[in-house]
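URGENT: need a sanity check before tomorrow's submission.

F., can you look over the Nucleotide exchange factor SIL1 record below? I want to be sure the sequence and structure line up before it goes out.
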Amino acid sequence: MGIPLENEWRNVNAPPSRLSTNRVYVVMLRHLGVKTIVTQSFLKVRPTASMLIGCRRRRQSTRQKVALVLLVFSCQFVHVISEKSPSALTVVESPEASLEGEEDAHVEEGDSEDLDVFHPTDKWKTLKPGHGVPRGSHVRLNLQTGQREVKLGEHQTLKYQIDGQRQGKENTQGPSVNAEELKALKNIKEEVDPKTSDKEEKEALRAQFHPMDELKKDMVKLDMLMESDFQIMSRLVSQFNSSNATVEEKVKALHDLEYLVHKVDNAQNLASRGGLKLVVDALNSTDYRLQESASFVLGSALSSNPVVQVEAVESGTLQRLLMLLATPRPMSVKKRALFAVASLLRHCPFAQSHFLKLGGLQVLGDIFRASGGGALRVRIVTILYDMINEKELISQTGLDPIPDASHNERLRQYAQVSLQPLLAEQGWCSLVPELLASPEHDWKEKALRTILAMMPHCQTQYRKDYALSSSLSALQEQYQELVLTEQVLGDEDGYFGEILALLEMVVLKLKRV
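Structure tokens as predicted:
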């Protein structure tokens, strides 16, 4: 049992015909410390020196009997231990095999057409039945599980690392490919003609794009289909002027037209083509919805458009708008009409002069004094402030360093607008301060700015108005507290501070002699 054996481990590379002389199987009995050498033809135990001395003293026949008994005993012992021991059977190469050169180990494989391709790695993997093993792979029998295990040889590992992905990594996760799939891939390669495939690809690519001539024709068609703003306005005006159109259709046409006339060119085209006159005529309609929509279109077309402003004044638009404001109308109609009047008067001294001649200030005063004026009152005060401020700005010396003919003409037209004397005459010096009682801060701000603008002609009347003085004092105390609140919140130059500055300026000018 204590027989020492040589611990020889070698790679198996010889074919089966030479396995009897070049290959041995070494069974390691780890828990007993015994090594037994097993060959294909017989099992032999190498005796120690003491055993050889004893055996020499016996006859030749006795040695043969003892060897036979030891052989039978060893086979039985190996069989019993192999069933209980966790050791494994390992294929090694004998010293003689290394002298004769390396040869591939023989692995019994079935027909390559019927076997699945097995992909070994650098680690031992269990070989399943029906899988073929590539040449040069290491194969061993695991005595614990009774299954064959395979791994790559050294030269195979290097080859896989170079050829796998050309990235220095071994492709161990690749899917297995069976023989049928390999045949199908081979047939595909044979059936595909590279020249034919290139032609088909080019034709398919050409089919995705159109020639330049066809693209030009398509662009021309698109230009014909797409309507310009002028064409759309012409269609809307025709729809609005149609005798068969309902009120809803006319209102919708005016709503779409209002979106287009914000552009200066579109508004001028509407006026030059006679569309503006149709919109002005709608102000005389008995339907309030048409009056409101027509006023909205006029306000958008007149805004910052001198050409359309002059056309509207000459066509009598201002008279009709003032008529809507002077007669009983719904609040929505008056809001739109006042919007159109403000757009017509802004930066147009020609329209402002006609406005004063037509009694526009009187109409606005009646609306301001009427109960329920609400938002109309602050809009009226804003119109008056803009008219006063425009004249002051245009009259300032050095406003235009190089005056031209148009500038001189504007100066002449603004000189004909005598607004402030009419404001004082018609009682606006007492009407504007009424907005100071409003709870809205914005309304108070606009009232204070208008009071300052009217101060040259209303100062005497303001000093006699004790209600105005008490109102200004109360507002000063209120906004001083609001300014402190803003400062606590970190807003040094807030909105309330601006209103407080206006209040202090009004009080200061009232105290001046």
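My own read: The chain has a mean pLDDT of 77. The domain at 228-346 is CATH 1.25.10.10 (Leucine-rich Repeat Variant). If you see anything odd, call me.
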